[in-house]
């Protein structure tokens, strides 16, 4: 798959839904194997996370920390070109107030996420 044929919106929405909203560890790991390169890197504001298993662990810990109703919701459509894409999102309890907003910016290689920056908006 070339960069020009990558569906950036599908890829980044799948990351939100199938990785960062997925509470089942086996399903989350399978999604990460499908969506990420072999050795991905994720840049969070406070740390750098390396590897598929660590990304899965961080996503699982985040969901556990904020409880069963916490969800990430995409805002608009992901845009991208030349191997770089961005998707804005908000998160919080499913029927509650928004707790945080931000965006994921991803470097895409061969149709998969190789590097992911998690950017949080100021409260």
CATH topology heading: Nuclear Transport Factor 2, Chain: A
What oligomeric assembly is this protein in?
single chain
Low-confidence stretches: none
Mean pLDDT: 95
Structural class: alpha+beta
Q: What is the percentage of strand-forming residues?
A: 35-45%
Number of strands: 6
- N-to-C span: 38 Å
Global shape: globular
CATH architecture: Roll
List the helices and strands and how they pair.
Blueprint: H1 8-20, H2 25-35, E1 36-43, E2 48-50, H3 52-66, E3 70-81, E4 84-93, E5 100-109, E6 112-120
Helix pairs in contact: 1-2, 2-3
Task: Describe the fold and architecture.
The chain is α+β, with helices and mostly antiparallel strands and 123 residues long. It has one domain: Nuclear Transport Factor 2, Chain: A. The protein has three helices and six strands, in the order H-H-E-E-H-E-E-E-E. Strands 2-1-6-5-4-3 form a six-stranded mixed sheet. The longest helix has 15 residues. The chain is globular and about 35 Å long. The N and C termini lie far apart (38 Å).
């Amino acid at each position: 798959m070339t960069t020009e044929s990558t569906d950036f919106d599908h890829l980044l929405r799948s990351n939100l839904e199938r990785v960062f909203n997925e509470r089942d560890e086996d399903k989350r790991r399978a999604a990460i194997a499908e969506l990420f390169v072999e050795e991905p890197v994720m840049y969070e504001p406070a740390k750098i996370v390396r590897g598929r298993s660590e990304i899965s662990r961080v996503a699982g810990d985040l969901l556990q920390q904020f409880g069963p109703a916490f969800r990430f919701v995409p805002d608009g459509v992901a845009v991208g070109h030349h191997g770089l894409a961005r998707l804005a999102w908000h998160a919080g309890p499913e029927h509650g107030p928004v707790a945080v907003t931000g965006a994921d910016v991803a470097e895409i290689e061969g149709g998969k996420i190789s590097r992911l920056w998690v950017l949080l908006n100021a409260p």
